[in-house]
Amino acid sequence: xxxxxxxxxxxxxxxxxxxxxxxxxxxxxxxxxxxxxxxxxxxxxxxxxxxxxxxxxxxxxxxxxxxxxxxxxxxxxxxxxxxxxxxxxxxxxxxxxxxxxxxxxxxxxxxxxxxxxxxxxxxxxxxxxxxxxxxxxxxxxxxxxxxxxxxxxxxxxxxxxxxxxxxxxxxxxxxxxxxxxxxxxxxxxxxxxxxxxxxxxxxxxxxxxxxxxxxxxxxxxxxxxxxxxxxxxxxxxxxxxxxxxxxxxxxxxxxxxxxxxxxxxxxxxxxxxxxxxx
Length: 278
Hints:
The protein is an all-alpha fold.
């Protein structure tokens, strides 16, 4: 019997699609939802399922930013064979994304037992939601929002890329929240910070999904729930991306900060009363 039903997979696909790119922690929300549905959050197949359906959200990024990605990838290939193309920002940016992904891959492989075990606890999720809120609020206040996407540098990409490790180790901190906050501290404007977060998430999340696929299929989640969860997350994530880019162009991150605090406190309350298991 599958550890996750098709109906549960659809619900989790919606949660993944809505929260993957919002700075509210998709991993945290998935674990909270799994807890409410009495799905064991530390089960290996469940952890694998959560990583695999992220691929649906990443596919939404690939479709939404297809023209940008095509331009960047084309510049990278041209630069491999034509020296004059290597001064183009898109060529350099492609390499920056590759370099910035290496730290999270190394940490992810080295710390996998902790990530799938003790750090998967909902106590960690609740605490990370609240702590991450403070970081996000400070970053939004500190940042001068004066630099656009064309002003990004290798240093920016590496620092923002490395910040993904926080979300990897502390589910609830939010990969989007960590990357956007770091970009804001580096004085990027909110739209540039959000777009950089999207691009840096593509290789990391795609790699995680492919790596976990064998565990999800081999340890108790059937192909049907995986397919449903991934497709639903794609559709919902596409709409979420479009909404977020419009929102950050005119608003601060304060609404997300407040939301994270409320959810974190609510999870602490549910855990303390035994309504959900850690």
